[in-house]
Write a structure and sequence with these properties.
Structural class: mainly alpha
Largest sheet: none
Number of strands: 0
Number of domains: 1
Radius of gyration: 18 Å
Helix content: over 70%
Order of helices and strands: HHHHHHHHHH
Length: 218
């Protein structure tokens, strides 16, 4: 059982949805997709993580984001911003990176909390929290047939999400720290790891693969 509950302010949730949806629209514009393509990628980037969380992993009935029409309006807003202001948004990469870093921590915690409330264990909650945090970008990249950023050696992205989701699950379910305190502590650590990886160039490394001698033969 959790002590208390972490509540994500609706204003931040909607604002983050707008920004993430805009990144999907920018990708669609770069690919020269039409209006439908823009909407699909905006929906995927803005709400993909939540759709995977509730529709695939938790299967809790009607999706929460579909019961509140403000989320779909936020996607439409992000799509419009991405379509008409793509070249200007590219100049705000630092601000978007900061918001994205906060989003990683917050959505990792939200996914982990929903998992714990559904009776899942720490490892499962960590998985669902991570998917909630990075799922939108993953779905977007798969739809445009690009190698997902999640899979490539890069600054700590999924790793930061894993850390945040796992820390929250341990603090809240095992150490019985109040959910609000556990959430903000986990979010701060996730954000710090993500920003430090960008600032200091911390990167994951590719797995080395050595061919067997038989495979090398013509």
């Amino acid at each position: 059982m959790l002590t208390g509950q972490f509540h994500l302010p609706i204003f931040y949730d909607l604002a983050a949805t707008v920004i993430f949806a805009a990144t999907g629209a920018i990708t669609a514009a770069r690919k020269r997709y039409d209006f439908i393509g823009v909407l699909v990628l905006s929906l995927s980037a803005g709400l993909g993580g939540a759709l995977l969380r509730d529709g695939v992993f938790l299967n809790t009935g009607p999706l929460a984001i579909l019961q509140d029409g403000r989320y779909l309006l936020a996607v439409l807003g992000g799509a419009a911003i991405g379509m008409f202001f793509a070249r200007y948004l590219q100049r705000l990469s630092l601000a978007i990176s900061v918001i994205d870093g906060l989003g990683l921590g917050i959505y990792a915690v939200v996914g982990a909390q929903k998992s714990l409330q559904a009776g899942l264990g720490i490892l499962a909650a960590t998985l669902v929290g991570t998917v909630n945090a990075v799922g939108g970008g993953l779905v977007r990249d798969v739809l445009v047939r690009e190698e997902p950023m999640l899979f490539r050696p890069s600054e700590f992205y999924a790793i930061a999400s894993i850390i945040g989701a796992w820390l929250f699950a341990v603090f809240a379910s095992k150490l019985h720290v109040d959910a609000q305190e556990a959430a903000w502590g986990s979010i701060a650590i996730t954000f710090g790891v993500r920003m430090l990886s960008l600032r200091l160039g911390w990167r994951t490394t590719p797995v080395e693969y050595t061919q067997d001698s038989e495979e090398k033969k013509p």
